[in-house]
Write a structure and sequence with these properties.
single chain, mainly beta, SH3 type barrels, Ribosomal protein L2, domain 3, four-stranded antiparallel β-sheet, disordered N terminus
Length: about 270
């Protein structure tokens, strides 16, 4: 595979300025908490960008919409579709992979199983590929929103629907929740290569330093003469906790809906 940006999907984007009424300027915190302490490392700088207000839910039900533009979003990996409804109101929504300018989409319980349409899970046939899925009825899509992501409807059981996620996890979701038909746009994002350090700086990502290059006071891996190994049985975080092979997921109220955990990657 050649080392080049395989970002072919961007050629499909509409050459227009973003919708001004759907833009918001977010305060930049550079990884700092409310008290001013750094809570997330390696953040700072970056180019100025405006947040696009995206409709993750279904505020416009049973109203036909036309895709008038496909746009880039600096805050997410997926592309956005600018929809114009029959009442001339405009909304941003996560675009599906095969969506084109001029396509008609609708959010309705009786909608056709067509790419870009949004329906309740109880009305979606088994085997259908979906994205932007709700976890609570009426709360808007919470999962499967990244570039190229999708899930598969496996089964309909009483008041739940079983979904197979890309990780291999099988999860139950309430039938009354909504989902969009198709796969999230920009699947080529996984092939984009960061060719130089300056690209990450433009994204607001500051350089990170290896633990073995630090002093013992700064990192558990630090110290030693010359190039030294970490000097311990397993790698640690800067705060002394296990860094690999440890489950970090906390007990969440959604854990009871997981039928099968994600499949571990083969080494």
């Amino acid at each position: 595979m050649k080392k080049e940006n395989k970002n072919y999907s961007k050629k499909k984007l509409t050459k227009k300025k973003p919708e001004k009424r759907l833009l918001v300027a977010l305060k930049r915190r550079a990884g700092r908490s409310g008290s001013g302490r750094i809570s997330v490392r390696h953040k700072g700088g970056g180019v100025k960008k405006l947040y696009r207000i995206v409709d993750f839910g279904q505020e416009k039900v049973d109203i036909l919409a036309t895709v008038i533009a496909l746009e880039y979003d600096p805050y997410r990996t997926a592309f956005l579709a600018l929809l114009e409804y029959d009442n001339k109101e405009k909304r941003y929504r996560i675009a599906s992979a095969d969506l084109k300018v001029g396509d008609k989409v609708i959010c309705s319980e009786k909608a056709e199983i067509v790419n870009g349409n949004r329906l309740k899970l109880k009305n979606i046939p088994i085997g259908t590929i979906i994205y932007n899925v709700e976890l609570e009825e009426g709360m808007g899509g919470k999962i499967i929103r990244a570039a190229g992501a999708s899930a598969k409807v496996l089964a309909q059981e009483e008041k739940y629907v079983n979904l197979e996620l890309a990780s291999g996890e099988i999860r139950r979701v309430i039938k009354e929740c909504w989902a969009t038909i198709g796969t999230v746009s920009h699947p080529d994002w996984r092939y984009v290569r960061i060719k130089k350090a300056g690209i990450n700086r433009l994204k607001g990502i500051r350089p990170s330093v290896r633990g073995v290059a630090m002093n013992p006071v700064d990192h558990p891996h630090g110290g030693g003469e010359g190039r030294s190994p970490i000097g311990m049985k397993y790698p640690k975080t800067p705060w002394g906790k296990h860094a690999l092979g440890v489950k970090t997921r906390k007990k969440k109220w959604t854990s009871k809906y997981i039928i099968q955990r994600r499949k571990s990657k083969k080494k």
